[in-house]
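[step 3/7] inverse_fold.run input=structure_tokens len=414
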């Protein structure tokens, strides 16, 4: 004889409340980036920027739709494509439908391919990939897909902006190109050679080499090659500890020319460069921090520092990701139908607090926005990095950079 148990009223109500809580779960965004290892500081600072943006821009304002809140769920990928795929599957198994990643284009390639395969096989649990910093041009060209959106300018667009400035500098006759040995580093080098060849064919490329990513402990041998080449300027796409190690070695070995970079700010780098980086470090980035372009941006940064006194907003685009995703969900009227959310993101025009309009180009899901060429300095700095007194100040700006840039993307839509 089977035993039958009758639930009391209290227990029944508890189950009812529990079921309601399940249906009212937050809208979760998986953050898959390095939280340990040599690039941990970069990933951790990015995570804090995501958490702050979600809380300040969405949750504190009542959420999206009918009060749904954003929740950032961190996953440590150790900058490994293999580990990233494991973490991606864990996130999908947890019901997460939005994935943010940015550190390493090699990782981004692995994620975008896995997301595309998953979405073909599992139409009821599709995922969107929000790429906030992986800038290999292939991701919005031959390797593009409907589920991938890039919120940063790609490497070609950034190099176009950097070389516009370099072309005007008549003191540059020789350039040394050096970067990390993976898809992004190779893309930076190829773009540098092509752009300089077109804009300043008189400039001689006196060095063009790659080094292992995240494995070089002492960049002195590379720095000595730069010095020996008699280069007037250096171009590098290095990021994280590789950027800091390379930049310091070059400067400390006597190089006095400009070093044109993509990611030489924040996450401990600005503080470590300090006075030595002044007059040397230049970097291309979206948005403007110094001076703050809007009262909203100034208040936002001040509130961020109140919560994270040792932090930096060195990736303004992170708040753009959160703002644009929230706008897309509200326009689509759903957070579960990611096709509808993607359709709302396509062609979106978004007014960023950082002084630029962002246009998500429909044909390849590449964000188009203003780009700034910034200088590492302690003059005119409203918000410094790393509590160092040094920050970045915009020296020039390219409006809606890359608006007419070509794309080979042949996107297949669901």
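[step 3/7] decode complete -> sequence:
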């Amino acid at each position: 004889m089977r035993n039958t148990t009758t639930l009391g009223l209290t227990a029944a109500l508890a189950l009812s409340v529990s079921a309601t809580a399940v249906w009212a779960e937050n809208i979760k965004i998986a953050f898959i980036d390095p939280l340990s290892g040599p690039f941990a500081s970069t990933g951790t600072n990015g995570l804090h920027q995501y958490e702050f943006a979600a809380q300040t821009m969405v949750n504190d304002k009542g959420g999206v739709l009918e009060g749904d809140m954003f929740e950032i769920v961190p996953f440590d990928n150790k900058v490994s494509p293999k580990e990233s795929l494991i973490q991606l599957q864990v996130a999908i198994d947890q019901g997460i439908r939005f994935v943010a990643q940015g550190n390493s284009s090699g990782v981004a390639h692995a994620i975008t391919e896995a997301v595309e395969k998953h979405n073909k096989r599992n139409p009821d649990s599709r995922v969107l990939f929000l790429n906030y910093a992986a800038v290999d041009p292939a991701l919005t060209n031959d390797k593009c897909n409907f589920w991938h959106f890039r919120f940063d300018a790609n490497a070609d667009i950034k190099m176009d902006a950097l070389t516009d400035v370099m072309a005007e500098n008549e003191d540059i006759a020789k350039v040394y190109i050096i970067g990390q040995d993976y898809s992004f580093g190779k893309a930076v080098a190829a773009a540098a050679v092509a752009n300089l060849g077109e804009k300043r064919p008189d400039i001689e490329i006196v060095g063009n080499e790659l080094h292992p990513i995240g494995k070089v402990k002492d960049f002195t041998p590379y720095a000595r090659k730069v010095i020996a080449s008699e280069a007037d300027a250096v171009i590098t796409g290095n990021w994280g500890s590789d950027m800091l190690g390379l930049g310091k070695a070059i400067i400390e070995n006597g190089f006095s020319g400009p070093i044109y970079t993509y990611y030489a700010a924040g996450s401990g780098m600005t503080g470590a460069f300090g006075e030595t980086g002044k007059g040397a470090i230049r970097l291309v980035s979206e948005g403007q921090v110094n001076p703050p372009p809007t009262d909203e941006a100034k208040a936002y940064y001040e509130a961020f520092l109140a919560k994270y006194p040792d932090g930096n907003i060195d990736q303004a685009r992170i708040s753009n990701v959160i703002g644009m995703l929230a706008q897309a969900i509200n326009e689509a009227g759903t957070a579960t139908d990611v096709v509808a959310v993607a359709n709302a993101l396509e062609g979106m025009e978004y007014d960023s607090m950082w002084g630029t309009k962002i246009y998500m180009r429909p044909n390849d899901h590449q964000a188009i926005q203003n780009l700034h060429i910034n200088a590492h300095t302690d003059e005119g700095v409203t918000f410094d990095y790393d509590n160092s007194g040094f920050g970045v100040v915009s020296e020039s700006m390219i409006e809606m950079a890359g608006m007419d840039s070509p794309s080979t993307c042949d996107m297949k839509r669901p």
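[step 4/7] annotate
The longest helix spans residues 40-58.
The chain is about 40% helix and 20% strand.
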